[in-house]
Specification:
This protein has 132 residues and is α+β, with helices and mostly antiparallel strands. The protein has three helices and eight strands.
């Protein structure tokens, strides 16, 4: 049993990139599916596929690398809010990730979205992670 599924999600991606894998498989949940969609929309991953073969389902993510330098598109995945210490922020309190080059994923009352979307919708929420 995983006590922090979001940290597990981020760690699986981080470990797969460090090992140079092209595809990583992650147990699915609605939150992880939405986070995967955000990563795709922001251009951090190549493709993703949701498979509902097993009870829980599976997310297959094709990781993105630079063609010449073989460096991963995701430089850093940082978990902000944890089960032991939740981090909440109002729209005007969102920190800019790498001067606006990165993205923060926020869980709001209107769903999971990026910090820019949450600021535009003027909703605050739990800051899940920073990605750049």
């Amino acid at each position: 049993m995983v006590t922090d599924p979001i940290a597990d999600f981020l760690t699986r991606i981080r470990n797969a990139q460090m090992a140079g894998h092209r595809i990583v498989e992650i147990p699915a949940s609605n939150l992880k599916k939405r986070m995967t969609e955000i990563l795709y929309d922001q251009g951090y991953i190549l493709k993703y596929k949701f498979e509902d073969d097993t009870k829980q389902g599976l997310i297959k993510i094709a990781l993105k690398y630079d063609v010449q330098t073989k460096q991963p598109a995701i430089r850093s995945l940082e978990r902000v809010s944890r089960p032991g210490l939740r981090q909440y922020a109002k729209p005007d309190e969102f920190k800019r990730v790498i001067n606006g080059l990165g993205v923060a994923i926020i869980s709001t009352s209107k769903g999971v979205m990026t910090d820019k979307q949450a600021k535009a919708d003027n909703v605050g929420g739990e800051v899940l992670c920073y990605i750049y």
